[in-house]
Amino acid sequence: MNEQTRPNLESLTDNFLMGKVKAGEVDKMGLLYERHKKRLFGFFYRMNGSVSLSEDLVQNVFERMLKYRHTFTGQGSFVAWMFTTARNVNYDYHKKRQRQQTEREWSTMEYKMEANDDIEGSMEGNEDKHLLKLALDRLGGEKREVLVLSKLRELKFSEVGQILGCSEGAAKVKAHRALKDLRTIFMQLQTQ
Amino acid sequence: MERERFEQMAIDYFREALAETDKQELELFLKEHPDHAMELEQLRDVWAQMDAMVVPETSEEMDARFFGFLNTEVEKTQKVAKKPTAGFLDVLGSLWRPRWAYGFLLLAVGVAAGYFLGPKEEPQSLEPLVADTNETEEVREQLVLTLLDQPSANKRLQAVTEATKMNKATESVIEALFATLNKDPNVNVRLAAVESLSRYVENPLVRMGLIQSITQQESPLVQIALADLMVALQEEESVNSMRQLLKKPNLDTTVSKKIKESINQII
Q: What is the band of A70 on the pLDDT scale with cuts at 50, 70, 90?
């Protein structure tokens, strides 16, 4: 690529592209999708354990970001804004599902089985991985969420705090305690 | 050290984000508090095991659905952008009512006088507009190059569509389109690449590349598309390539007939 055609790096940042989307260049969302679809999918998959549901929720995030693009100020990082949207999408999905659940209490394992994604099958031969997955499912939405977000290297902890609506220090404490609870459940499952 | 401070430092330690001074402080604390040291070790194991959880790949359907949605949204935005023009024309139309005719005539005379009698200056506001257009083109170029590199045929097709929207393709995009035309495993993507490259046939290198591509194609559809393009361009230098194609032992009979017709139309 010669000097004339070399793109200005500033013009390729997430915030710049989202700014363009906000200004009406909706097609720029395509590049943001390519950049972030995998980590968003990973977030939903770790939260819910279903491939088809996670793909639906990734789509919902981009639809929502486009719908509410006017709310993007560009002051914080795009990734933090995106994960805040992802968190809301996940919360809304479960809230709606809980409303629909009339006969028995909803559990994440149920829709995983409905979605027929064969999570357990993929865990065969690796008991610890399977038990850890089960422990994560039993941990509860909020604790699971803080751990999944803490694992994302793209996010600074100040951004994790921003997404969770608390300070950086409080987010770290939450993550530590969630990890401790996860270990307790994991150990209980191992002894059963 | 307070309990909360330890908990915060432990998370930074797991994320390998602990500053050197904090690390020393933590190590000192752990030496004096073996129970905390044990807790840290135990939790570090669980933290590490979380990394081993495999996340599956996303499907092509997810991409197809997203880009389908995005295309619809782009079209909607374009329609909305056109509306103000129509509204403006409506307003102009209403001005043609007789009661406004006199006032409008006076306004037109005033504008004309201002235009012809006013000082002549070069327009200065074009520069930012040109810069903005260039910026958009650069982003589009990146989008094209990124999407062309994807394993999904849908995305590569999207890339070729994006390339046709560019006002002027850069060398990198032309090269990438030729790589797609000659090597892409999907026929639809290769056909789209022919169409996209046909926009730049005024460039002799593009014409030469298209001619050379004729002998590399195995798909009858792409062979016919290239032959049609050569006839449209009346490109005499393509005759040799087409004759070479005719020598291929497994050449489709319809293609063979089409190529012979095309050669006759060019000579």
A: very high
